[in-house]
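Ticket reopened. Same input as before:
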Amino acid sequence: MSRIACKGIWKSFGNTRVLEGLDLEVPDGAVVTVLGASGSGKTTLLRLIAGFERPDSGTILIDDEVVDSARHFVAPERRRIGYVAQEGDLFPHLTVARNIGFGLARRERTSGRIEELLELVGLKGLGGRYPHELSGGQQQRVALARALAPHPRVVLLDEPFSSLDASLRASLRFDVMRILREQRATTVFVTHDQAEALSVADLVGIMSGGRIRQFAPPEELYSRPIDPTVAQFLGEANLLRGRAARGAVETALGTLPLGDGNRSSLVGPVLVLVRPEQISIQRSGRVPVGPGAGEGATGRVIHREYYGHDCVVLVSLDGAEPAVRVRCPGQAPVEVGDAVALQVTGAVVAWPAEPSGDPLRR
Amino acid sequence: MRAVAANGGTGRDTGHDGVRGSLRAFVSGRRRHAPWLLASVSIVIALVLLSPLGLIVAQAAQAGWGQLWSVIDRPFVATLLWNTVRLALVVTLLAAVVGTGAAWLTERTVLFGRRVWAVLLIVPFVVPDFVLAWTWSSVFPAVHGYWGAVLVMTLHLYPLVYLPMAAAFRAADPGQEEAARGLGLSRWAAWLRISVRQARSTLLGGCLLVCLALLAYYGGFEDLRYQTFTTAIFGELQTQFAPAVASSLSLVLVALSVIVLGGEAVFRERGRLQRSGPMAQRAQTPISLGRLGVPALVAVATLVGFALGFPVAVVLYWMVAGGSSALPAAVSLGAAAGYTALYSALGALVATALALPIAMLATRHPRRWSAALERSTFIVQAIPGVVIGLALVYVASRSLGFLYQSPELLVAAYVLMFFPLGLVAVSSSVARASPRLEEIARSLGKGPWSVRVSVTLPLLAPGLLAAYCFVFLSAVTELTATLLLVPTGVQTLATQFWAYAEQGVSFGAAAPYAATMMVMSVIPVYLLGRWFDRRFLAQPGERSVLEVLT
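Engineering reply: fixed in the latest deploy. New output:
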């Protein structure tokens, strides 16, 4: 059973089309992230589900009940949805406790529910504060507690951590997702941060052009993106030209085996996705020959970035292809200027090369 | 299927009720709409506000355009024009310099006792222009004519610049000035090019108010024997009894005001001031004055002394020295105070209530026409009280005779005159009561009306209170329109003071009325000061009215 179903949603603001026939089904109890660039309509999608805006056409169902269609509209206050906005949007004239208790009936406010929620979000004892006396992270915790208080059917999170700094953001995200999992709350979380989208979700939807381009578990999305745009959206991607035949593809990095998805069907010119961590790097002359490895390629290191846990090396291939990014664990075994040999491990994903839509030409 | 179609609005639209919303959602689908109820109410309000202008034009037209021109095309009018323009230019300039300088001293330097001065510098505004002019000219007969008017009006009006500029300096981000100094500017240059530059629209707004007030004042100029359009209009009306001539002169006066308003609109800053990032602002380090500390202190003390200490002392002196025989009966003072409070409170109430729909429409539904509607009501600011009074007298004497010299008409005049003040205060708080908070409240299960009461109203409350105080204060000290419209047999504090002070001998009798007016104005001024703090400090936590009051 799906908790939320959006069917054929169209929405424009003036002459700007934001959603163009969007479909999305959120399963009961799942944490779904919707990943898209800023301005791609993510927030609009949440606002439509919450009932703050109405679509131009299409149907929205919550628990199989139509909440928005051409003939029906359920007001936001009757949808039982918890909404957490980017800036928290706490009521500035109310204390923390009264913010959390806002959506509760009078007798529930004295039943200990507020204290329970304060404890859940780790703000025990701060119920008497006003929002401006809290830090940004604390404000977001209150916003979450406020949204969870009336036992919503769905929790919608609109980039809830984007106004916080990086370290606070990671720890708050960890806490919030733990709480949402504990509460078994069906959650839709929109973000433009791909690491955030992948790390917290059961299912990720990639939004672009006013639609959901791909909707899948994060592992599948990362390893088998449906097109080059999705591939580039999620993580770093080397896109190489190649020629496919008999379940393998010839590229500047050698002849690489195709993954299960498109082994047999693909023939002719293709665009190949090689993730940076799929490539191993050695100084020239010491090319390892492992099982399942292609014959490899040679090039020269032109740039190196060190991240602590790993590093990224930019290698200019001896052929005419653009430089390739290689990720290696720990310290780089090579220096800028070294002649190196590259080796791809594992199967790759490829798509037929479209003459017009070739992302390499952009 | 439960609870279908309770409200057909988009989240941003708030001006409709559930039944109509559902009907519209059902019939016309999901088109976004401006709320017609709010829009039509706002349009009616704007039309009513602008009606005095139409009435004055009608009155002048009745006399005939030929005669109008013959009234205007006289050396007398040229003199009036010259008197008015040279006074407006010099006083506005002086008020800008004095107000900005005082604001800088109290907000950015270590001036001795700056917290106390910050309060005292605002208070002179509670001394009505005609009281200040009277105290100066009664003690120093030399204070009259052009230079007398320059002195008195600068002392009276500089708080209109000081108040917003002080708030702007307080809210200025020290980080920006530091960045400028990092780029090689001196402290002085950084202050001028960053803080003053950014406060330019604030300064212009203050200057606009000074200019418009100058054009509208009557009593002070009468005291100082300085002739402007307003005194001439009054003269035509009361001594010559020539309403058509008065109307013609009014048209010139309105034209002047409209030019000032238009000038301000041209120079107003388009961009908005914003601090980057959500982080809290650091406190500013006050600047040490060094050897200039004592002269600065003397300057500020002199300003406060001249604008506040002197008139208060004179009023107190007359209350004591005037002798008990000259003191009015406590009954008539009490009655005048009561009427003043009543009419001012009613005017403030109505003006605030009328400002709310227009502020809501312009802020929540920002279209070109709604912005134009809001701006159009500011034209009222450019219509001096004497003109509004004249228009209302005209209406009452022509068609609505039962209203002539009725309290309702006087209250209506206050509403018309001070509506823009109320609108400014209400608008800024409407802008802060974000519709997103209302949406969140809806998603937490509250219906539209419940949200209005529990979220929107508390967020608007400080602005509504400020609007109320603004209008109340202005109405208490209003003389010009009150003289024209005061109900038969009634005296307000201002008119009774005027009646005594004009006779020139009963200073002792006039003084208690002046004192009462000042006392009645102090509380709203204090509240207003607090409100400006909040408005410009941009704290995320705007609190309830109770906390404004404490």
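The two ends of chain B are 50 Å apart (CA to CA). Residues 330-364 of chain B form the longest helix (35 residues). Please confirm and we'll close it.
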